[in-house]
Amino acid sequence: MAVPKKKTSVSRRGMRRSHHGLVAINTHECTNCGATKLPHHVCHSCGFYNGRQVLKVKKNKTNTED
Fold first, then answer.
1. Does position 66 have pLDDT exceeding 80, yes or no?
2. Half-sphere exposure for 44 (CA within 13 Å, toward CB)
3. In whole angstroms, how far apart are CA 45 and each of 4, 12, 34, 48, 57?
4. What is the C-alpha to C-alpha distance for residues 19 and 13, in angstroms, rounded to an integer?
5. For the whole model, what pTM was predicted?
6. pLDDT for res 65
7. Strands (E), 1-66
8. 11 φ, ψ to 5°?
9. Cβ–Cβ < 8 Å for 33, 49
10. To 5 degrees, how large is the angle CA 33–CA 36–CA 41?
């Protein structure tokens, strides 16, 4: 069985794991409603993509029962 001769240093271990960091998600502002959305995706709040209506979005009703 293979056993390492020397201990892997903290620096070498860190250099090996240098690509394991988290990457921030790119978000863009919707040109129609101003909500944040992923690039090249339909806006979930208004249903617009590339300046045209693609999806019909249902509006949430607020119940005021008192």
1. no
2. 7
3. 55, 46, 9, 8, 7
4. 12
5. 0.58
6. 64
7. 28-29, 36-37, 48-49, 52-53
8. -65, -45
9. no
10. 90
